[in-house]
Amino acid sequence: MTISPVGRTPDEIMTLLHGFKAQDMDWRSGRVFAYIYQPAEIAATLVKEAYSLYLSENCLDPTTFPSVAQLENDVVRMIAGLLQGDECVVGNMTSGGTESILLAVKTARDWARAHRPHVTQPEMILARTAHAAFHKAGHYLGVKPVVVEFDPVTFEADVTAMRAAITDNTILLVASAPCYSQGVIDPVPAIATLAQEYGALCHVDACVGGMYLPFLRTLGRTIPPFDFSVPGVTSISVDMHKYGYAAKGASVVLYRDRSLRRHQIFASTETTAYTIINPTALSSRSAGPIAGAWAILNYLGEAGYRDLVATVQAATERLMAGVDAIDGLYVLGRPAMSMFSFASQAINVFQLADALRRRGWYLQPQFSTPRSPRNLHVSITYGVAHNVDALIADIAACVEEVRHMPPIDLALVRSVVEALTQDPSPAVVEGLMAAVGLQPGALPQEMALINEVLDTLPDAVANEVLIDFFNNLY
């Protein structure tokens, strides 16, 4: 493809874009139970208008656009207050939870360089249930993730295992509030106390829970402490574009005080160009997400968020009860909020996900671990809450459908896994992936067989296969 010799009209361009979207799942119908967090239409329209108003403003230089700094400070102060932070708590808005987590890990690394210079190979301790963003941050920043197991019944992080994993190189302990995969809150006070005991920092990943759990608590639910009310918690990440219902590209990372946040900031006067001062990872970035977050916070207020949480939580509990009542399915762990996962000993849940997708639903497959079975993840938001009864009915119907389907060809799976384990080179990956329905540059229509292979492979090999596939996709 090359740039068109002559330009197209706006109508032609929009027609093409709408045509491209025809291949996407219709999330507006409320049948996509992941990725999308949609408020009521009037709120969504306001967010779009605020975003568009600040689309071109650049966060790079607050002296040029002082209103952007004001909006960011307002959002940070509101979220800090919601998470029981005092006037010393500071933070910044980022592009998403991954960037917030990356910055928290970077801050911990650079804090350790200043305060524990003997540490040359820094480590952070996290449960297997923690988000992959921590592994990504460790990969980028040279901080080794030390992974410990979780309680196979509750899915909470194993604090005793964390203690056993601490070494002189430990700079950071991680807790989830909750973990995305099963919606379970880790024992944050115990983890934060452990971090204090050993002179380490403690980050709480509240990317999904930060804008939900405080309002659930005001509705009378018992929510264990997880925020700045817990001594020893030194940083928290919370996404506005999840249960804050802001537009994508809006997260917040908070620190206990400025002395800690200082390690996040980068500055450079060493070049012939303008001075760079970056509080976050990016330099130029649109102020649209900040304006959208500011707008939705002010539009909904505490009462509006509380109403949304009440609606979503009621739908969540109805859906969990409905899933548990279906013969052969069971919910994993003890979910604390509006996300959970379920497994089955009777059918292949990867086939169930495909069967549901053929009916227009999307549930998120998750692989097994030594302590957890393969499962399907469900995130309930305001935009899908009205559909949970229809989903329960279709899950039950699809379970029966899968019971009568031919099983996945396990002999094929074993042969592919054996070959890839012996030689995971790109050429071998390309040849074998074709056998399970993956073609270079194309997305598969059904995923059950592919997920079966990936779930069976050792993690290191599965990661290489996925990297090679995506390397050919774009």
Task: Tell me about this structure.
One of its GO terms (cellular component) is membrane. It comes from Roseiflexus castenholzii (strain DSM 13941 / HLO8). This is Pyridoxal-dependent decarboxylase. Helix content is 44%, strand content 13%. By secondary structure, it is an alpha/beta fold. Among the domains are: 51-296, 3-Layer(aba) Sandwich (Aspartate Aminotransferase, domain 2), CATH 3.40.640; 410-473, no CATH class. Helix 2 (41-53) packs antiparallel against helix 10 and helix 11 (349-358) packs across helix 12. The chain is globular and about 60 Å long. The two termini are 13 Å apart. The model has no long low-confidence stretch (mean pLDDT 96).
Outline the fold blueprint.
Layout: H1 10-21, H2 41-53, H3 66-82, E1 90-94, H4 97-115, E2 123-127, H5 132-141, E3 144-148, H6 159-165, E4 170-176, H7 188-197, E5 201-205, H8 213-218, E6 235-239, E7 251-255, H9 258-261, E8 266-268, E9 276-278, H10 288-324, E10 329-331, E11 339-344, H11 349-358, E12 364-366, E13 375-379, H12 388-403, H13 410-422, H14 426-435, H15 448-456, H16 459-473
Helix pairs in contact: 2-10, 3-10, 4-5, 10-12, 11-12, 11-15, 13-15
